[in-house]
Each structure stands twice: as structure tokens, then as C-alpha cells.
Amino acid sequence: MRRLGLFLTWFVGLFLFVDGAARLAGFAPYVEGTTRFGYAAWLAPWLGITLAVSAILMLIPRTAVLGLILVTGYLGGATATQVRALDPWFLFPVVLGALSWLGLYLREPRLRALVPLRTE
Known about the structure:
- The chain is an all-alpha fold.
- It has one domain (about 1-115).
- The chain has helices at about 1-25, 30-35, 45-60, 65-85, 90-105, 110-115.
- Helix 4 packs antiparallel against helix 5.
């Protein structure tokens, strides 16, 4: 369980970090995507910093819960933006968030004790 949890955490965390770094670097597809959803182009680097820092915090064991809470907020905003724009990919950030929490749940016994899944 722990290995699968680590894999999920690192898979999603690295994906989000690269996404944030690309926004911070100002890669054209990311800036165009930001403006397509109604945000100003100058916000792309700030969104990138927010996502990259949140992903890094999620990958550090001591700050994983804080990072995951921040990532969840970011992904919630992404979901709301995509729903508002009628984008059919609105479930993608939901799935990333669910996989992130599943990864933490599988590798953190204190979280499993706090939120037990009952089979009764």
C-alpha cells in the first residue's frame, strides 16, 4: 500500500510541478490556455508559482498535508473554471485531486485512522 501511495503522490506531484513550471516559464500553450479561460496573461506566472510551490509542499513528507490542501484548492479552482467555460475536460483536475488524496491515504496510517473505510 505504501509503495502505491508513494507512486501516486510522486506521479501527480511531478505532473503538477511540471505544469506549474511551464506556466512560470511562460510557455505559449499555457499562457494561451490561461487567456482562453478568461484570465489575463500576466496571471500565468503567478498561477505557475502557486501550483509549483503547492506541488513541492505535497512531495515533502513533513508538509504533504498542507501541500495537498493547497493543491486541492488549486484543482478546485481549475475545475470551476473549466465547468464555467463548458470545457469537457473538467473531470481531469477532479481525478488528479482524487489520486493525490488516495496516494496520501495509502501511505499515511494516521490519515487511515482518521478516515477509516468500513466494509460493513
